[in-house]
Amino acid sequence: MEKRAKFGIGIAIILVSLAWLGWLGARESKTYYHTIAELPTLTGPALGQRMRIGGSVAPGSIKRLPGRIDFLLQGEGKTLAVSYVGSDPLPDTFVDNSQALVEGHRTPDGRFVAERVQAKCASKYETAPNGAPASSSRGSGT
Q: Is residue 15 part of a domain?
């Protein structure tokens, strides 16, 4: 009987530990989407949340510095200073006026520190003059 009790307690400890780790992982992986205009209205715990923000890269704002890349993201008549500190290289489509989605957190001084940046080239997805998608009119499709 004593061996069954020890085994039961061991199983219970393992299950509780796995449940706690699962809950912690789910909480840490939550990412909230906000617009640039919403950022000044965030208060309390919302300021420390991991978030995604989308906008256009301001022309001439990309600055490559040691250990980070700084740029301005524009949207809804507002701008946001962003510092990309991730280890992945930026996409080839990350250029002036491209649409970008940054993921990270906001610092107390108002700067956004991004660990991930996704970008797309707007001209690649526009409709060509004859009505066909622009990517199919270029021949390669990529």
A: no
